[in-house]
Amino acid sequence: MSRISERIRYVGVNDLKKVLFEGMWPLPFGVSYNSYLVMDEKVALIDTVEAEFADEYMDNIRKELGDRKIDYLVINHMEPDHSSLISLIRKSWPDVRLVANAKTVPMIKGYHGIDTNIHVVKEGESLSLGKTDLTFYMAPMVHWPETMVTWLAEENTLFSGDAFGTFGAVDGNITDYSSRLYGNSDSSDDAFADFRDEMRRYYSNIVGKYGQTVQAALKKLSALEIKRICSTHGPVWEKHIPEVVAYYDKLSRYEAEKGVCIAYASMYGNTSRAAHALAAELEKRGVKYAMHNLCTGNVSYAYRDLFQYETLVVGAPTYNNDIFPPAYNFMYGVGARLVKNRKFAAFGSYTWAGASVKLLNEMAQKFGFELISEGMSFAQAYSPEKCDMAALADKIAAEQNKGC
Ligand code: FEO
Q1: 33 CA to middle of ligand 1, Å?
Q2: 230 and 262, same structural domain?
Q3: Does residue 247 fall inside a structural domain?
Q4: What's the domain count of the chain?
Q5: How far is the CA of 82 from the centre of ligand 1 (A)?
Q6: When you count CB atoms within 10 A of the terminal residue's CB, does the N or C end of the chain come out lower?
């Protein structure tokens, strides 16, 4: 699993223990923290891994390194899932020179107290390892302001940081000719198909806000003839590069397919009944949908499907003359991700004064979404007469058939 090529070795780890990535996002299939050695006359280590995997990580490095030493530690990204072990690397190889850009330097000092023996690189600058060079390109806000990527031209290899990464630990080989999503009983022989939903969930949860900067990075990197992508999470992409790059391009342009993401929250079941009625009506009309209960499920999955489908329908009762908080929180996250180009409808119950549907519509309009319904606010118990989901499903189906 470790030898990607004669020069490039995988020394990363699978994390099958963490329950919530960033304290928020579930990891049913785990996650990998990828790190790589580039071995030439000099040896460069690209990024590190989470602190709790120090023993396994050091074993991986020493197995590949033998009696050689690490000359450079390239820091593409300072989020602690990749930078936690900088201090340990410096302690283990005291002469190791850190390679970082100017925005990274204060973060290294802030997290590790290290401010010596740092080689500061600029856009397009190269570092010779002997027969090969590493070249650095800045990729700000993919995912943090200091992020950069590292290009190994001799192997047409891009060390891309979080870009093109995915949730899901890697089973089998690290390269996508034979890697599989860990613990997924539906695993196929197609690594891209296998990881696609987890890639979209990763993108929408973690990087979703940064569509514009991802687009800028994609444009910059399009000049490179990339034959291998070594990201910080998930498989090393070789076989599926066109699909993976096209998918990131699509996600970062907020392009969606026909279908509906229904996200609802319900206190006593009336808004829930309306949501299920809508699902049944969509089903009858052959409209694809995904439904998420925001009270019982992690919002991570609702964001995943928000990035898949062109129509968003949100259900929430009125609570304290406002939007019921689980639905408000979801909508806050939709806005925070700067999601564009969505059609929108809202529904929800109230007991003595309805406010949620009006407020949901206002949020959606602020995001620039197109309202396909004035929304359905109904008093007390749900009934089809008070909340006509057949009519809403007709509208959605008609919208989706436009241009077909
Ligand atoms: Fe995997 Fe932004 O760190």
Answers
A1: 9
A2: no
A3: yes
A4: 2
A5: 7
A6: C
